[in-house]
Amino acid sequence: MILKFLKQLFAHLDGPMVGLLILLLSLSAAVVYSASGENTGRVVSHLGNMGIALTAMLMISHVPPQRLMQFAPPVYLLGVLLLLAVALFGIVVNGSRRWLELGITRIQPSELMRLAAPMMLAWYFHYKQETLRGRDFAIAAVLLAIPVGFIAKQPDLGTSIMITASGFYVLYLGGLSWKIIIGTGVLAASALPVAWHYLLHDYQRQRVLTLIDPSSDPLGAGYHIIQSTIAVGSGGVTGKGWMAGTQTHLDFLPERSTDFIFAVFSEEFGLIGNLFLLLLYAAIIWRGLRLAAGTTSLFGRLLSGAIVLNFFTYAFVNMGMVSGILPVVGVPLPLVSYGGTSMLSVLLGLGMVMGMASHKKLVKT
Amino acid sequence: MATLRLINPEQEFLRYRRRMEIAGGVAALMFVGLFARFAWLQVAQFDHYHALAENNRIALVPAPPARGVVYDRGNTVLAQNYAAYTLEITPDKVADLDQTLDRLAEIVRIEASDRRRFRKLLAERKDFESIPIRNQLGEEEAARFAVNRYRFPGVEVKARLFRQYPFGDSFAHVVGYIGRISQIDQDKLREAGRLANYRGTDHIGKLGLEARYEAWLHGRTGIEKVETDSGGRAVRVLSRTPPVAGYNLYLHLDARLQQVAEQVFGDYRGALVALDPRNGGVLALVSRPGFDPNLFVDGIDTATWRELNDSIDRPLVNRALRGVYPPGSTIKPFVGLAGLELGLRRPGDSIVDPGYFSLPGSTHRYRDWKKDGHGVVDLKRSIAVSCDTYYYGLARDMGIERMSGFLSRFGFGDKTGIDLDGELAGLMPTPDWKRRRFKQPWYPGETVIAGIGQGYMLSTPLQLAVATMGLANHGTIYRPQLLRAWREPVSGRIAYAAPQVLGQLELDPAHLRVIREAMVEVTSPGGTAARAGANAPYAFAGKTGTAQVVGIKQGARYDESRIHARHRDHALFVAFAPADAPRIVIAVMVENGGSGSGTAAPMARKVADYWLLGKLPDAGVPVDSHDPEEGGADMEVTDVEAADDVGSGEEHP
């Protein structure tokens, strides 16, 4: 009886995927413990976040794709309205207008958009799948540009790039012509100097410059990169051992529980650990892409594919940033960094991927 | 743009699969790229980043040693250390110095002089050096600052050892002082290869024994290898090489004797040197006026320094070794001994002193200080009454070359080699010297006045004391030494400085006995220092001297009451006692003291009384009792040539 209930409860989850996620989350708990300086409270709270996010993952896996599809436009609309509200009434923290004060709590609507935007685009392509034309790609691009524009204006370059990427994956998987992809790529590259001068904020420019030459500002913007690169490099092949990273435990690494947690991992577990982590991520992505490919509906395929590729993007950008080949943008290492919001949105997304893949038999194309 | 019609879901699905495979392939490639980056950092560049991480982590903190303590012969502390807090600012870390100072002043007391000194040190400082703004912070002030520390980046409280000279100005010219290491000091240390040992040390000996024995007093700096966090705070000590304290120095100097000597000087300027003739140990070395060496330790402020440096009393000059004066009549025992040794005079040979001396074929009269002369005078009497005429003739018979050669053996014209820096050699003139110096021949008249210690000849009070040691000690002259012993800190062993023989003069003991007896007569009834020697329970050998500051015109008389205080004669006295087995040799030089017999001799007596009898002098300054016996007239003999070096040649009505 109980067994049957449990079986039903986990019916829509994918065994191998869940196994890989549990492995990654266990690793995360160990690294956060070290990064926080043996702060048990921090780890307990981290485990709590995991519990909440896993529960959410489990719950959303039960939601059939049709229902998710129905949610897509209202959630997207709500997200855009909240972003508008942020632009009008948002409170400024650290020079950025990202938060909305709701009396009891603050929310950051751009987080909602991480899932809402690809959902909306996938919904649009599914809706138009019988009559898809070139201009539908243009309309989809506008649907993407609205929230991205708001978020870029806050300013929050990292999030707006990540949402653009997730939207782009939908367009790409939906069949956006290679000519346009390449053409836009060339255009974007040639527009870079303009963007550099007119669109980027000073601090954003500074981050890029700092990437090129961290030593130009060793105590300011370059400090993060210099110290994290030292942490990674000094880890060597085998690492300094768990809880034994000097850069970590002597306070040289900034943001070491959150965005720079990869430096902690890398310092303590070395190249071997890094290889293991890369393979673990690759396995999750590979399994995710397999699930996405097995999803019956177009909506499900596009959304799942975008979510998995987005997961890859987060992992790549974060590790690239910490190891000093990408500028410092506020992107956490998915499922490893401490932080409830990111954990929740990543596991919700993967819950959708697993759920939609498992509901295929019930859906008629 | 072509309209896409995706009628065939199969076709759409295949395209999806293909695009996904491409995306997966690109992702895989990008992961490979990341791995390559990790391998570059963690394998190829590992050594570099490992070194950087170790640099981050490990700091070598110098542990400065405790400076050696200086004691007198009775273990009285002359220079010591004490621990206290300082408030220091690292200017490189402070954006607005003035504002920081103003805000600091709200928390701790900062005087105007503190600010002046800070400004001065700021101008002299080295890169990234912290500069003290307040010394000797009390516990309460240190605590008050600690609470407010977050408001003052670049400002910190340091616990440091301070140098202190408990006797203030009494030993300034002997012990000297330490001061902050200057750029010049740093360059010297680098040249000597000793700079590494000064990491963590702010101060270095600048003067006196502190400078001379710097290498011993400083000690060896230890090193602490500490693990630090990103804020530079030490987390734990990894290894530690403890510092080794400097040597403690034990001097021949006697603090009480030094103070007695200072006391008998009163307000006079001048110098007193007391030596132990048995080993050359310096028992007292006084130069008046002195100054407080404590002022210099943490950077003297400009106003105070200028006041000291510009004072006409020249308190910064160590007169005992840097003051050069004509020895005057104190030279007579040496010239007399030369006469005996060279066979020019026998002890009993007498002259009849008419009160003056003239060279053959000249009408110029070299006058005796006693207008009517001393009558019949033999060698002993010539010393006892300080007869000038006797020595005019003796000098002429001897000639300057022989006189100069003989006196040089007693150390005149040469540095004594005392263990202090900056000593002057004085001058023992010869015709060669005069030709080189003035391109002029030596005149016979110059030989005549050289016989009474006038003319070109110059000596320091220390030289007089050392030469007198030769008379007291049967011809053995030891190098004057302040250092008696030192304690080596690791073994705790005390090593003694061996006396060094500066000269072993081959002198006829009978001749020496005559001179010594004559010098005892000086302090006996009838001698020039009879008053100073009255009732001495020991045989007190001495010789008075008076050196002219201003030339007195031929035929004019020296009248002290009509002469400006700073133009009065310098008073000199050399002595040793007890005469038969001397335990102390004294040379006193009192600037503008008037006369040797009246001013200098009583001082030497009081010093000898204390040393030999433990008798403290009466309180109060000695009275300048002008002794009519000798007057100040030693110098009425002045020739034009002589006046050049001795005084200004200014004429008095």
Describe the 3D structure.
With 365 residues, chain A is mainly alpha-helical. Helices cover 71% and strands 3% of the residues of chain A. Chain A has one domain. Chain A has a three-stranded antiparallel beta sheet with strand order 1-2-3, covered by helices on one side. The longest helix of chain A has 33 residues, at 261-293. Chain B has 653 residues and is α+β, with helices and mostly antiparallel strands. In chain B, a hairpin with a 6-residue loop joins strand 18 and strand 19 (494-496). At the A-B interface, helix 7, helix 10, helix 12 and helix 13 of A face helix 1 and helix 2 of B.
Label this structure with key terms.
heterodimer, A: 365 residues, mainly alpha, three-stranded antiparallel beta sheet, 14 helices, 71% helix, B: 653 residues, alpha+beta, Penicillin-binding protein 2a (Domain 2), Beta-lactamase, 2 domains, seven-stranded mixed beta sheet, five-stranded antiparallel beta sheet, 20% strand, disordered C terminus
Query: CA-to-CA gap between the ends of chain A?
Result: 34 Å
The percent range for strand residues of chain B is 15-25%
Task: Domain count of chain A, please report it.
Answer: 1
Which blocks of ≥5 consecutive residues of chain B have pLDDT under 50?
Answer: 620-653
* Largest interface chains and counts: A-B, 51 and 43 residues
Q: What's the number of extended β-strand segments of chain B?
A: 23
- Outline type of chain B: elongated
Quick one: how many beta strands of chain A? 3
Task: Give the oligomeric state.
Answer: heterodimer
